[in-house]
């Protein structure tokens, strides 16, 4: 390979290299923008999923509270000697089941 001897040839090579570098840099910039865009979509999707899961967890938490209340009424009914107290506790448990 011969080195350029004229300043014009050298300038032309420098110009070609700069153009190629700008072109590559432009593509890199576009790729980064595409990646950022995809990442933003994924973060939005994950955020929506987290909100959905949070709502589900809260609903299940409320159901667990009801189960423990029902169990408490059943224990109360089993441990009471008074028939009317047993019936009242069972009615409260049935009401929560509705």
Strand content: under 5%
Spans with pLDDT under 50 lasting ≥5 residues? Answer: none
Based on helices, strands and strand pairing, what is the structural class? mainly alpha
Q: Give the radius of gyration.
A: 37 Å
Average pLDDT level: 85
Write down the overall geometry: rod-shaped
Give me the number of helical elements.
Answer: 2
**DSSP helix fraction:** over 70%
List keywords for this structure.
98 residues, single chain, mainly alpha, 2 helices
Element layout with pairings:
Elements: H1 7-79, H2 83-97
Helix pairs in contact: 1-2
Please summarize what this structure is.
About 90% of the residues lie in helices and about 0% in strands. By secondary structure, it is an all-alpha fold.
Plain-language structure description:
The protein is mainly alpha-helical and about 100 residues long. It has a domain at about 55-98. Helix content is about 90%, strand content about 0%. The chain has two helices and no strands. It has helices at about 5-80, 85-95. Helix 1 runs antiparallel to helix 2. The longest helix is centred in the middle third of the chain and has 73 residues, at about 5-80. The chain is rod-shaped, with a radius of gyration of 37 Å. It starts with 6 loop residues before the first helix and ends with a helix.
